[in-house]
């Protein structure tokens, strides 16, 4: 879909009318930090929130509430005539809406989908409210810690994929003539969240989405760093001694599966990533 790129000083009708239109019929993806933040605000565990209020195995907020006049269902956390019940812990997608965000050349860029400002579809009264600059809006929405978490998980995703590359390319697996690993990498990129989660397994999904982290919970950067360290330790403990090519293959597939599932949670395209990573491996001597 076409997007409209924005400048930070651009003035837009960003003062919310609080009709709750954007709390109906949308898709909100959650990375592990956002899942934790929502659970903490609701005063339950991340596992409980994931089980009760999430779809796609824990990376998408449920929209299963009452329908509005347009027939769109409300977010599971939306309360009619009140608004978001977890407003303090709302994820980045909700804080930014109707804006989107992309990282290009290590710099954040903001935009909205289409050519007409999205809020005009269902909330035309925003035109009568004060305009805000993009910069002022994102500051008022306190997006900074959530942007940091999103960017940190983007790096974690690549770091996990790098471990999968090491298992394939630096252990002798690729040199053995293995052709199954890259085929499965590409296949996993096309699998549904439930299919990929089943392949990964319950224990690994828990480590990936609801890590047992008890320190530095208020700092997203430290949270994500501790999470990656936990993933590294878990991978090392599981695959410290691999004796056969089949074991190496299974390890490379599992670890890449973790990277691809995390990619979904931060809004990346797993099919494109899987193909890119497989093509890169081929360039380094892997076969398929």
From TrEMBL:
This is YkgJ family cysteine cluster protein. It comes from the Bacteria. The lineage of its organism: Bacteria, Pseudomonadati, Bacteroidota, Flavobacteriia, Flavobacteriales. InterPro entries: Puta_zinc/iron-chelating_dom.
